[in-house]
Write a structure and sequence with these properties.
binds adenosine monophosphate; nine-stranded mixed sheet; UDP-N-acetylmuramoyl-L-alanine:D-glutamate ligase; alpha/beta; 10 helices; single chain; 309 residues
Length: 309
Amino acid sequence: MSLLVIGTVAFDEVETPFASSGRIIGGAATYVSLAASYFLKSGIHLVSVVGDDFPESGIEHFHRRGISTEGLQIKAGEKSFFWRGRYRADMNSRDTLETQLNVLADFNPVLPESAKECDFLMLGNLMPSLQRSVLQQMNRRPKLVVLDTMNFWMDSAWDDLIDTLTMVDVLTINDEEARQLSGEFSLVKAARKILSMGPRYLVIKKGENGALLFHQNEIFYAPALPLEEVFDPTGAGDSFAGGFIGFLASQSEINFETMKQAVIYGSAIASFCVEKFGIERVINLEPQELSDRIRQFVRLVDFSIQPGN
Ligand code: AMP
């Protein structure tokens, strides 16, 4: 199966209560495509834009993981998207200190012919109007369209976002964003409302408190793995999304059961991401590390109870 990923490829600067990253490679599509590459050895197409300040060595990370960058535009004389954020003491919430759109301000995604045929589409965090334009350029509707977004776009492009939501199968957002999007505090009520806005499945990410999957009247909960050390949570949500869609793209069927497994695989990749700054941990995972971690997840929630009447 093939997967098209759109989103930001960026420079980030991250501050945690313990360390500062300096300028490092980040971006939603960066994390998504790298995470998905653990499930698809080939057939991942990345569509994004960077300035000519983006290093060749950054692009090589994608090639090493078998990701095609034919759709990655490099704009001469322009600067890459830049995001700066600071984590609070709980390491679960963060403040955006700076967002410089730079090349993103007039980005016009153009899909290479090969990418228009992809079976799976991950609309990573980006302007909702651009996410929509990518879906419209596809030769046929993909088997599954997953959309990720954030409060920044709810604040600045509400109508576009609501419109784009009607076209997707799965939405992944965090709990704070689910509340903002629905105007409901209860996540169950929020999910019901969001599922009536378009997506058939909703994943609400709750950082160190795991993730919830909603579909019709079903709810599935996956914990986050309790880790001894969380170094930098940046990219965890995108790595989750990449693992989630990458796993689904490797399956012959998509239903609530495979979605549940995808949530666990996504959570596993996200648990690696937070162990180091930036993409450091998600560029070279060993297959054995991943399967060991999946086993840890299974053990974490394995219990046997015979409920009484
Ligand atoms: P997360 O998985 O939510 O931690 O995503 C972190 C990544 O999102 C960073 O690498 C940023 O470059 C990227 N990012 C931050 N703000 C935006 C935005 N407004 N639109 C798209 N990507 C963003």
